[in-house]
């Protein structure tokens, strides 16, 4: 019984750990690219009128 409970807890931990890695890898990467693109567009809009 105790081993089964520990196995379930370990399995849930691994699922959460993998979900965090996927979120940071894919969604974090998209967010970073979007912010870089917006910063580049902002910089270009500031330098063009001069």
Overall pLDDT score? 86
Number of domains: 1
Per the principal axes of the C-alpha atoms, what is the gross shape? rod-shaped
Sketch the major β-sheet: none
Distance between the termini: 73 Å
Task: From the alpha carbons, calculate the radius of gyration and give it in angstroms.
Answer: 21 Å
Q: β content, as a range?
A: under 5%
For the secondary structure, the number of strands is 0
Oligomer: single chain
**What would you call the structural class?**
mainly alpha
How many helices? The count is 1
Low-confidence stretches: none
Helix/strand order, N-terminal first: H
- The helix content is over 70%
Tell me what you see in this structure.
The structure is a single chain. Helix content is 92%, strand content 0%. The chain has one domain (1-50). The protein has one helix and no strands. The model has no long low-confidence stretch (mean pLDDT 86). It is mainly alpha-helical. The longest helix has 46 residues, at 2-47. It has one helix spanning 2-47.
What's the layout of helices and strands?
Blueprint: H1 2-47
List keywords for this structure.
single chain; 50 residues; mainly alpha; 1 helix; rod-shaped
Brief overview:
With 50 residues, the protein is mainly alpha-helical.
């Amino acid at each position: 019984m105790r081993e089964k409970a520990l196995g379930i807890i370990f399995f849930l931990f691994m699922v959460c750990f993998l979900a965090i890695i996927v979120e940071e890898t894919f969604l974090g990467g998209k967010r970073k690219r979007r912010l870089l693109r917006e910063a580049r567009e902002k910089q270009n809009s500031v330098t063009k009128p001069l």
